[in-house]
Specification:
Elements lengths: L2 E6 L5 H7 L7 H15 L3 E6 L6 H10 L8 H12 L5 E9 L4 E12 L2 E6 L11 E2 L3 H4 L2 H16 L8 E8 L1 E2 L2 E2 L8 E11 L4 H8 L2 H15 L4 E6 L2 H22 L10 H10 L7 E8 L2 E11 L2 E9 L9 H15 L4 E6 L3 H6 L2 E11 L2 H22 L1 H19 L7
Parallel strand pairs: 5-7, 14-15
Antiparallel strand pairs: 1-2, 2-3, 3-4, 4-5, 4-6, 7-16, 8-9, 10-15, 10-16, 11-12, 12-13, 13-14
Length: 434
Amino acid sequence: MTRFVTKIVTRATPSAAFREASAPVDAGHAALSRLADLSRELGPELSFSIHTRLDPVEDEWRRFQESAECTAFQSFEWLATWQRHIGTRDGVVPVIVVGRFADGKTAFILPLAIETRRPLRRLCWLGQELGDYNAPLLARDFAQRVSSDRFLALWREVLTRLQSDRELRYDWIEFEKMPQTVGVQSNPFINLGVIQNANSAHITQLGNDWETFYRERRSSATRRRDRTKRKHLSEFGEIRFETVADPADLRRTLDTLWEQKKRIFARKGIADIFARPGYREFFADFAINPGSRHLAHVSRVQIGSVCAAANFAIVFGDCYYHVLSSYCDNELTRYGPGTLHLRELLAYAIWRGLRLFDFTIGDERYKSEWSDLRLKLYDYSTGATWRGRIVSVLSTARRWTKRFIKQTPVLWHWVSRLRSAIGPFLQRTLPSAR
């Protein structure tokens, strides 16, 4: 295990700053006010340690995430499962930076990683590709105790320490999908030279009663269409919304989700990410493992003997994270089994007493129709070596191009049509749906 300990110490104590103010005696109140301002600006001493394994920081991480501001994608359970099934397979080295205040309390945790993409090495967030939000875990009073300038100074020191260790040296930094805020605080990494991600995220604030919430969010005409479609679906068999808990049933439901998702991807001309090594094992383990299953919610809409729709979600804090969803590709599809499932999930989240329903990353129209909060996401890339700078420039250009296309309706329309035109050729290679 590699472990560094570095301390960032303020160069002027509040008392020294007070002496330097040289305020007249009759201006005591102004001097005291200046002292208070400087005290807040300088804040307490910060220290940090760097760990290349997860187990030494597991206990502190688990305790901290209970009170820290973060998302489900920074939970120890999510990232430890990712590292076990994907990171270790790909040779990823965790870089867990734990910051502490002078009183010993945890100030932040940065779950970072070094990935080798021969011949280059990339510094990124741990589990970055599968994390819809990549961000630090922050103490609830972090923004009050640490200014953005002080955090950036500490961040530069972290990078210096990484580059001084052969195992942790990197060629470029590439951070993706960083939310504008972490809880109610501004994300300190947004102060880097970020660019906006091609996608944003959408969140809805839930109420205390499903029927009231439903009437407020959907017009009478839409509710009438929903009832008509549900009636058509009921003609194929009894409609049941089921939360899945039995391990064997969980595996069967997730297998169905993968197969339904594969067909959706093929129809849209999108590569199947769940064909990648370790991805299916990761989600199955997270849902079944005793150490993480309390955070997972797997459900389905069963119509007769057919699984018409399925989903995988995370329940973390007071939020329901809608991570993956699928629906069948047969005669039921025209009546919207996926839309029916979404309504059931919203009702379920309200029944659980949750405050937020997070649709996570993506700007699909149905998300904006339900949501009242939009969260901007940002990317950051910079080179540390000459080879890394070349990769960083290309990466930034790719991101700018992708965002330009997605934000230009005419271009995005034609790109989507082109992918959809390719999709049927991919779908022909798949076995027929049952």
